[in-house]
Each structure stands twice: as C-alpha cells, then as structure tokens.
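Record 1 of the preview.
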Amino acid sequence: MKIMVPLVLSILCAGLPAAAALGASPGIAPGLDLDPVELVRSLDPRAMDGLWPGFDPSRLPIALFDGSRTWLLHHPAPPPEFARDPGRDGVLVMDGQHPSVVANSGVEMGGVRTATFVVWPGASAANARWTIVHELFHVFWMSRHANFRPNEMARYAYPVTEERVLNLCLAEEEALARALEAGSPAEAAEWAAAALLFRRERRPLLPDHHVSAFETGLEMLEGTACSVASTMAGERPEETSRKLRRDWPADEIRGRFYHSGAAGCLLLDRLRPGWKAEIDADQELTVERLLDETVIRMKAKAAELPAEDRKRIARRASAAAAELTGRRKQVRDDLLGRDAAKIAIEVPAGAEPFRLARFHPLYLMVLDSRQVAHEAYLTLSLPEGSVEVANPSFARNSFAGTVALTEGGGAQPLMNIRRVTVVGVRGVKVDRSGALVVIEGNGVKVSFRGATLTVEGETYRVSWPAAAK
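->
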C-alpha cells in the first residue's frame, strides 16, 4: 500500500518477535507454518497471463521478513547487507529484520522499487499468496502508471458523518454487488449504470475535487491490485460483493474504494474484454470512465433499487453516522478528562504553523473539521524547536497512554496546525537552559527556544509573543 505521507501505509508488522534460527527450515521462522520464499517461487508466470498483460511476478523484486531473517528475490541491485543463500539459487538473505521491510507494502531498496511482505503468525498460505501478488502488482503497476496516486491528506476531509454521503456510498456499493452477481451481461450493465448514477449524485456533496480524486486514485492503485490478486486466488466475483456489503464503520472510508475499484475491474472483465490494454495505452483512462463508456455503448438503462432496500440503506447510513459521532465525542472527552499531565503548545497568530514531519495515517482519529487525535506517534516542528510524541502504551484504537491532539484549519484538519495538546503524560521533567525550554515525560519531548512556559496545576503551556504586524 502506498501513500503520499512520510511513512509506509499498511498494517504494520514491525515488532514481530525475532526467533533463533537454530533448527529452523530455510525461510521459516520457528512458530510459523509457511515459507514465504517458496510462496513467491511457486507463482507460475504462465498462470498470470490472464491477470494483466505483461505481469510476471517471477521478475519483480520482493523482500520478505519471516520473523527471523529477511529474504530478497529478483533484485537487480541488492544492498550489501544481503548475502547469497547457499541453499537456494537466486535467493539473498540477511539475519534479522531489514529496516525497510516493516509492512506489506513497497519501498525503494537499493534505488529499485521493491515489494515488501512480513509474515504474520498464523498466516495461511492462501492469504499470504494473495498479499504477495497484491504487493508485486503494485510494483508492476507503478512502473507503468505514475499518474494515479491517492492524495491521502484529502481523506481526512471526507465528510464521513454526512448521512446523505454515506447513504449514496452504500447504495452504490449495493448496486455494484448486484452487478457482479447478475445473471447476464445486460443485467450487469444495468446495475453498473445504477452504481454510476449514485456516484454522480454523491460527488457534488464532497468538499472539493481533491476528495473525488482521492477516490479515483485509490480505485486505480488499490482496486486494480485487489482484482488481480482475487482473480489469481480463484475468488468468484461474489466474494467482492460480500466485501462491498460489509458493515463498515463510517470512518473506514478508505477501504471502500479498494472494493469498488476491484468491482469495476471485474465488471470490465465481463463487459469489455481487452480493457486492460486500453488502460495501459492511455494514461488518462480510468476504470470509472471505461465502465461509464461501456454501459452507454450497451444502452443500459439504470436498474432501480427497491424502496425497501433504499430504506434499509438509509437506516444503515444514519446508524453509522451516529455511531461515529458518539465515538468521537467519547474519545475527546476521555482524552481531555484524563487524570495526568497535559502539555499544550500554541503558535501565535501571524507566525508560521507547525510543520507536520511524522505521523501515522492509520492510527489517528479525526474528531472534527479541526481536531485530530494521534494515538501512535507524531512529530511537529517549528524553526524554534519541535514536539515529538511516541506513545509507549500504544494499542490500536484504545487511545491509551500518551496521545497528541492537533488543531488545524483550512481545507482539512492536518493543514495549518497551530495548536497541539499532549495528554496522558507521566513523569514530567522541565529543564530551562537560557532561552531553551525542554519538557520531557513518558513518550514525549518538547523542546523550544524563546518560548514562555506557564504551569497551571498539571497543565504545562508553551507559548510565544504574537508576531509583530
């Protein structure tokens, strides 16, 4: 998974316990029941012929961490820390976890775009193979299509509590699911036309074109990879229908477009054979545009969802919006009412806002149009110093431990950040050395020059005089 923020986006697998290699089979860390190297080598290029023209996993570089060692295959310029595996031709290995291989994703390694895969305990060979093909396809796709990249920052402005937006998302997903399940191409086209109508009704409700471009970028980057991996795995289109109908929390908007994009690809496989060559030949073509052209060419009249289904979808949208609104309030109230020290830093009017240097795009919650809670880590900087938070008590979605709250402005809440409050801080220590103020605690370090520190009970406030006009 690839993003336009300063870190890899995926379900991070870093921190798997390293296991001693003694007695382990090649490529298998003790406690794991699959060999990732052999999974890659088992991908027969002849079986990939129908997935996408020219896609050959046996020629694409990939690095794999099995919990004990990192393996490298098909890499034209391997980093020097890798050595040849004496037991297997064409395989390189190093002890431990390579710092670039922390997720199922893709990185630049030795100047070459390389897929990465981390074995997780209990992973099945089928699921691992699906993920490996997904990440290898990203490497292949990005070498051909450099123009579609989802602007991940736009996602934080997505109106996920707007019932009408959610309603139309759900209606589109239901129409796509029915298109995939249709008994004839004509029926599939009618339901595809219905899905496109719901989409055209939703798009004007989005805050700006960047958000709709985010949807398109995800469908082109992730939807294509999902469809290829699912086809390789022998999944029937009905499996994508099941994913489309999943009861998503309202704020998990990103995952929706993996499956709507995959649905579009699968429908084109049925309705417009040869479409993949068209996409490769025209860098401006999208799956959405080709599907729209196809249903028009077939003169398909949009199918209509029955009234009872529309009512059911409206209830789901209302419930999802209410659940997220309540969950946001609960998280905010808990954080601000926490019985521990707080550190509040505010940039004065007229001064430059914080620079967002490092954050985790998965492990945060947008609380409203201005405020975001960061539960894993965060680094902000100014010319005068920085705020560094790394929550030692991090547990996904718990918001326990040391958590940062940022307040921004503008088109989305991670822009123009002028205030940050760190809550849940234990063991606060303050050091004043001349013009330098340093505040440290469990999981946080604040360091600024020329700032004023005010202590009010357990709240430490850092501020500066307003900039001269």
